[in-house]
Each structure stands twice: as C-alpha cells, then as structure tokens.
Amino acid sequence: KKSEPTYRRVLIKISGEALMGSQGFGLHPPTVERIAGQIKNVTAMGVEVCMVIGGGNIFRGLQGSAQGMERTTADYMGMLATVMNALAMQGALESIGVFTRVVSAIPMDQVCEPYIRRRAVRHLEKKRVVIFAAGTGNPYFTTDTAATLRASEMSCEAIFKGTQVDGVYDSDPKQNPDAKRFERISYDEVLMRNLKVMDASAIALARDNKLPIVVFSLATEAGLAGVLRGEGQFTTVG
Ligand code: UDP
C-alpha cells in the first residue's frame, strides 16, 4: 500500500487523560513518549501537525467549581494544566528529534511563545509541530473548542481526536456489547443524539467551518499515521 499522505495539515487533539497512563492522575512519561513517537511518524509522512492537549489529568474547571471554587478561577487553573501537558509533550517530541513550538493563548513569555496566528502558520510551514496551549484563553470553554478554533485558524483539513474507543458508537460500547460504530455521521446527528464526541460548541464550530472530525483510538494498531492513511477503524464526523 502506498503511503501517499492524504492530508497536508491536521490538528491532533488528545485529552489530558491520555497522558496519565494507568496511574489515574498527572503525567506518565512513558505514555507521553509513546504518543510522541506516534506524532513523529505523522511528521515523517510530511504532514504538518498542530496539537491541542487537554488538562483533565491535572485539573478540570467544572470539578473545581463543583467543590466551591469560583468557576472562572477554576477554569484558568484548567488552562494552566494544559500548559504543563504541552511542555511535557514538547520535551518528549524534541528528545526524539521533532522540532516543536508551544504557543499559549495566555502569554507567559518565560515558558513558551504567545499565540500569534501568523507566527504559528510560519512554524507549520517550517515543519515544526505547533502545540497550542491554554485552550482558547477564555473560561467556560474546553480544549475541544480550542482544537476546533485553532484548526480553523490554521486551515487544517481535519481534526483527529484520539480517545479510548475506536470511533463514535450509538451507545456506550463498554456498557452495551451490541453498540454500533458509525463509519460516518453528520454534525447534526451527533448534536441531536447528544453523542459524546466533543462538546456542543466545538461540534457546532466544526460544522460551521466544514471541518471533519476523525475519532480514533489512541491504542489502535494502525497507529496515528495509519489512521491518517485511512487504515484501521475510526469514525468521521462531517
Ligand atoms: N479550559 C478553559 N478554557 C479553554 C480550555 C480549557 O477554561 O478554552 C479549562 C476548563 O476548566 C477545562 C480545563 O481547562 O476543564 C481542561 O481542559 P479540558 O477539560 O478540555 O481537558 P480534557 O478533557 O481534554 O483533558
């Protein structure tokens, strides 16, 4: 099979939880390294890579506010958590020879670059992996929305959302053995059925910008590069 890349530029979204391994919290360096290796394989295909990493392995705004914190403060803490994850991923990627830039929606000059759209585009053109940190920079949003926003701004052809399952099902495949996986599903159907792909604002933004979302399993044998070549199982929302 020819490994002709079908994509020129993509955004890869992974949740913070994907980085915690089996330890239930925080960062598990071997897991971060494994994902970094998958990203490297994608860059080796000549595809330009944007990344957004969540922060749920460290802090979630909603959880903080449920425990009595002010929502906006808790959300800023969640955004800071995504910066930690971005730095961990940057370190893992650079240690295997992949050039990266972390760009943050909340400027913190000593830690990473501020997000400036034209500069981020330039990094991609120079084949650097650009990791977008601190979400959208605004409370009440999620990193899924940040992923859709940045993918639109960077003119990505698709978002690849890595999850625990190999696509979108009509019911939870962990609860229901008869759950059916969709090959393809429309944005509206995801919203109507309230399927947990991304939050509603992220799905609506993707729909309005005609941005396909490919949901795949991070444990897939085909690997991320394989999924980009159309191998293995996944669901395309679009
Ligand atoms: N967050 C935010 N605005 C954003 C992105 C993230 O306030 O634009 C906060 C929010 O509190 C969220 C936390 O950062 O709970 C971590 O992000 P998310 O829950 O999306 O991470 P994931 O579930 O992907 O690990």
UniProtKB/TrEMBL annotation:
Description of how activity is regulated: Allosterically activated by GTP. Inhibited by UTP.
Membrane spanning stretches: none
Cellular compartments per GO CC: cytosol
Principal subcellular localisation of the protein: cytoplasm
Keyword field: Allosteric enzyme, ATP-binding, Cytoplasm, Kinase, Nucleotide-binding, Pyrimidine biosynthesis, Transferase
Enzyme kind, highest EC tier: transferase
Gene3D superfamilies: Acetylglutamate kinase-like (3.40.1160.10)
Annotated binding of ATP, by residue: K13, I14, S15, G16, G56, R60, T163, Q164, Y169, D172
SUPFAM superfamilies: Carbamate kinase-like
This protein's pathway: Pyrimidine metabolism; CTP biosynthesis via de novo pathway; UDP from UMP (UMPK route): step 1/1
Residue span of region Involved in allosteric activation by GTP: 21-26
Name of the protein described by the UniProt record: Uridylate kinase
Gene: pyrH
